Amino acid sequence: MTTPPLWPMADFLAAMSARGLGAPPADVTGISIDTRSLQPGDAFFAIRGEARDGHEFVEAAMKAGAGIAVVDDAHAKALKPFGPLAVVDNVLPAMERLGMARRAELDARVVAVTGSVGKTGTKEALRLVLARQGETHAPIASYNNHWGVPLTLSRTPRTIRFGVYEIGMSNPGEIAPLARMVAPDVAVITTVQPVHLAAFPSLDAIADEKAAVFSGLRTGGVAIINADIPQAGRLRAHAMASPAGRVIGFGANEGAEARLLSCTLGAEGSTVEAVICGQRLSYRLGSPGRHIVMNTLAVLAAAKMLGADVAQAAADLADLAPPSGRGARQRLTAGGGEIVLIDESYNANPASMSAALENLGRIAPGPGGRRIAVLGDMLELGPTGPELHRRLTETIVAQQVDLAFLSGPLMRHLFDALPSTLKGAYAANAAALEDEVLDALRPGDVVTVKGSLGSKMGPLVKAILGRFPPAA
């Protein structure tokens, strides 16, 4: 059977209220905003970013094989010689209209995921279990912002059975419009934690913003909330005031409908006993950490509410692996032994940092090895930042970390608070810390690298991989 095109050209132009210039192809086979990943036949959207205007790259997009470029009126005349154009008033709102048009025609069950921590991991777990039971679409990477959500919606095939969409925020007022675009049947809030405190006065204010996801629910939809956090009642009140027809709590709390009965945490994964909306389940997770265990309760509750086989979904969680930059683990050759590298470099906040250190504490080093934490600043914490960094001292000591290598002005507060025996080295930035870390590593070590994206810990991970080859 022939796969239908992503967008017949007539539908593509109509959804955006665009006028065509030139001779466009019959269909659009993909949507792109980046010439580096563009595929032949894609429609290239010339979105204006913080640093560059996408209109600057239209010529390169057409040379790379784009079938059509979506541009604004102001640039259309100058760009017409490069190839077919879809001309709109403003490119980003046009992509929003395209995404909402696709959502309106979907005959699929849709879930939206938000929360201070665990959005992407929960989205990936939902992708895993739902894809085993029907065609499923979810964003690549963390496409959860003002352009990522409409981009993912516009890329959604008409034929899917399940849609999984991640919704994030950095400032007040960002979640509600994205939730309305997604119009989910089920909305999940993983947790509320001290993240983005530079933009919000309190955890309650963060909870209120996260709860805005429920405003986008279709009438009679399901709200899934973390029953174990202090803001659970606040989230429930928001859900009850929304179009939701049902509210499900998940956690260890006795009143939770998706309730953890017991779990055994291991270095490589966990075993779990739980009751999901009246159905008792035993399952194994292929990804370590108690926070992962808790989020799978929400995953299974969402799967059940979406009409999936929850027992099959639970069994499939054995294949769950940590995403790149969020706990992915590699064994590397070092001298006559191995180093275990845990890459947590994508992002960080106090909750995820503590979880990463707890996972490090569960892994026994090899002969002569040590537990080593390489940490960069946790950003966007506002005035509480220095104290939240200092508090990590307790977790580092409790998890029997042997050495800490720290970078960034906020991590200076942690470095100064650490016992002298745990101080590996401190540097003003991750690049300046690189040589210290590489020279310190030895066979048997287990090393976790973590920091906010802006602290640039990813290149340090690449440096370790460059020095120590993968183990056979």
Provide an overview of this structure.
The model has no long low-confidence stretch (mean pLDDT 95). The radius of gyration is 23 Å and the shape is globular. The chain is an alpha/beta fold. The two termini are 42 Å apart. Helix 4 (91-105) packs across helix 6 and helix 5 packs across helix 10. The protein is built from 17 helices and 22 strands. The strands form four sheets. It has a nine-stranded mixed sheet, sandwiched between helices. A six-stranded mixed sheet has the order 17-18-22-19-20-21, with helices on both faces. Strands 2-7-6-5-4 form a five-stranded mixed sheet.
SSE layout and pairing:
Blueprint: E1 7-8, H1 9-16, E2 19-21, E3 27-28, E4 30-32, E5 42-45, H2 58-63, E6 68-72, H3 73-79, E7 85-88, H4 91-105, E8 109-114, H5 119-131, E9 136-137, H6 148-154, E10 162-166, H7 175-182, E11 186-189, H8 203-211, E12 222-226, H9 232-240, E13 246-251, E14 258-265, E15 270-276, E16 279-285, H10 290-305, H11 310-316, E17 328-334, E18 337-344, H12 350-361, E19 371-376, H13 385-390, H14 392-398, E20 403-407, H15 411-417, E21 423-427, H16 430-440, E22 446-450, H17 458-467
Parallel strand pairs: 4-5, 5-6, 6-7, 8-10, 8-11, 9-10, 11-12, 12-13, 13-14, 18-22, 19-20, 19-22, 20-21
Antiparallel strand pairs: 1-3, 2-7, 14-15, 15-16, 17-18
